[in-house]
Specification:
The structure holds two protein chains of two kinds.
Chain A lengths: L1 E4 L4 E4 L4 E2 H7 L7 E5 L2 E2 L5 E2 L4 E6 L7
Chain B lengths: L11 E3 L4 E3 L1 H18 L8 E5 L4 H12 L3 E8 L3 H18 L3 E5 H5 L3 H7 L4 H19 L4 E3 L4 H14 L2 H6 L3 E2 L7 E3 L7 H11 L15 H15 L3 H26 L2 E2 L6 E2 L5 H9 L1
Parallel strand pairs in B: 3-4, 3-6, 4-5, 6-8
Antiparallel strand pairs in B: 1-2, 7-8, 9-10
Helix pairs in contact in B: 1-9, 2-9, 5-12, 7-10, 7-11
Classes of the chains: A mainly beta, B alpha/beta.
Chain lengths: 66, 299
């Protein structure tokens, strides 16, 4: 599957199928810190992503001035 | 995962509530959390005019959307910080949101209206970028609200923001900041009321809300915030949250319930000692307020 990471932008190929939680574990990402969007759809952490999925992993943490 | 409400497939889980939601019921969940914050902390009264501080990011646009949806008269205020391409993009998101919903957006630009921008302020002072930015935002949110007769300023601080700020305040045992850290800062001489209606919602929930509501927001991080200590605190708190869901909420709401009253007097004493800035009239502890000092040095 095609994975796009943001901040900084990076594109990866990962072999599917995988659940969202397994994908995040493989990429060493904390599920609390990201959203996973497959195609245009937000997906929950137990969703299964097949090998042809196009996935954006979007960071949710914003910093800066409190 | 099934939606807690309708048992249809869920698209987002909220582990601290031991719940998952379909798109429709997640939006309902967010509205209910805001409604509860507003009610519990008596943030807004019916008919009041609200000025929403809008950055073009997920939190402020979600807040504006939620307040309008809940029936409040909410206009937006965008402050141009002059951070190159980042600011050029952020204002586009804020303007597009307002235009598509026929909402009023006030705009002030640091460079055009005050003769400096955040990179210039950082270059000539010892302040961090986030310090100069936060100072300018706090000063101008308040000034614009008073100038245009708004009853209250609403900011998009969410649970993660508040937990991270609290961790920083506790690490330094800063009594004044701890006393001021509350979802509502009441109006006082020279101050509009300030409210934080998103304190019951986490950062991940706000990003999900925007995706599900079709709100385009600036995902890219501010280039000047790299290394900001609050980002570090958030990472630490998210590591805790992943192991023990509910930790951030327990930390922040436990503070409000059990510890904040012990520090509130420190904040009251600080406000009582304020005079008026001889340049702009804003409340200050010194002859000239920190924003005017920054403006004079940086412009």
């Amino acid at each position: 599957m095609k994975i796009t990471l943001r901040n900084p932008k990076q594109e990866l190929d990962v072999r599917g199928p995988l659940t969202v939680v397994a994908l995040l574990q493989r990429l060493d990402l904390n599920p609390e810190s990201v959203l996973v969007i497959a195609g245009d759809e937000l997906v929950a952490r137990d969703a299964r992503l097949d090998d042809s999925a196009v996935v954006e992993i979007r960071p949710v943490i914003s910093g800066g001035a409190p | 995962m099934k939606c807690r409400v309708c048992r249809e497939p869920a698209v987002i889980d909220v582990r601290r509530h031991n719940a998952a939601f379909c798109p429709e019921h997640f939006v309902t969940h967010c509205r209910e959390q805001v409604r509860r914050s507003v009610h519990d902390h008596r943030m807004l009264e019916p008919g009041e005019r609200v000025l929403v501080a809008v950055s073009g990011g997920k939190d402020s646009l979600a807040l504006w959307d939620l307040l309008v949806d809940l029936g409040y008269h909410a206009d937006g205020f965008y402050l141009g910080l002059g951070i190159d391409r980042y600011s050029d993009e952020s204002v586009r998101f804020a303007r597009a949101f307002a235009r598509e919903r026929s909402l009023k957006l006030h705009e002030v630009d640091l460079r055009d209206d005050f003769g400096f921008d955040i990179p210039a302020a950082v270059a000539v002072t010892h302040r961090s970028p986030c310090g100069a930015c936060g100072l300018s935002k706090r000063h101008l949110f308040n000034a614009v609200a008073l100038e245009h007769g708004y009853d209250v300023v609403a900011t998009g601080h969410n649970l993660d923001d508040e937990a991270a700020v609290l961790l920083g305040n506790v690490l330094r045992w800063d009594a004044g900041y701890l006393g001021r850290q509350h979802p509502v800062l009441p109006a006082a001489e020279g101050f509009a009321r300030k409210v934080k209606p998103l304190v019951r919602l986490g950062e991940r929930e706000m990003a999900a809300y925007c995706v599900l509501r079709g709100i385009d927001y600036q995902v890219e991080e501010c280039p000047m915030a790299a290394g900001n200590k609050h980002l570090g605190y958030k990472e630490i708190l998210n590591a805790l949250e992943d192991r023990s869901p509910g930790s951030k909420a327990a930390f922040f709401f436990g503070f409000l319930e059990r510890a904040h009253p012990r520090f509130a007097a420190d904040a009251t004493h600080e406000r009582e000692a304020l005079g008026a800035c001889r340049e702009c009239g804003a409340p200050t502890t010194t002859d000239v307020c920190a924003f005017c000092k920054l403006r004079v040095r940086a412009s």
